[in-house]
Automatic annotation (TrEMBL):
The lineage of its organism: Bacteria, Bacillati, Bacillota, Bacilli, Bacillales. Keywords: Metal-binding. Residues 2-68 form the HMA domain. Coiled coil: none annotated. InterPro entries: HMA_dom (IPR006121), HMA_dom_sf (IPR036163). This is Copper chaperone. It comes from Marininema mesophilum. The keyword Metal-binding applies.
Length: 70
């Protein structure tokens, strides 16, 4: 199990949280997603098979947010 923390810019409400969580949970190998709006982060617990973190970043960016690895 691996944990990746992503800094997400532009989140402001529960809808933001839900869209990011939903996008990440659709990715094969993602086990758990925790989004903290106040801290501006998404914590993704995933299988080691996800070695390219860009897959996670792109899923969030497709929802309209800017992302940096934390």
């Amino acid at each position: 199990m691996a944990i990746t923390v992503l800094n997400v810019k532009g989140m402001s409400c529960d809808h933001c949280k839900a869209s990011i969580t939903g996008a990440l949970e659709k990715i094969s190998g993602v086990d758990k997603v925790t989004v903290d709006i106040d801290a501006g982060i998404a914590i993704v617990e995933h299988q080691e098979t996800i070695s390219d973190i860009n897959i996670l970043k792109e899923a969030i960016e497709e929802q309209g947010y800017d992302v940096e690895e934390g």
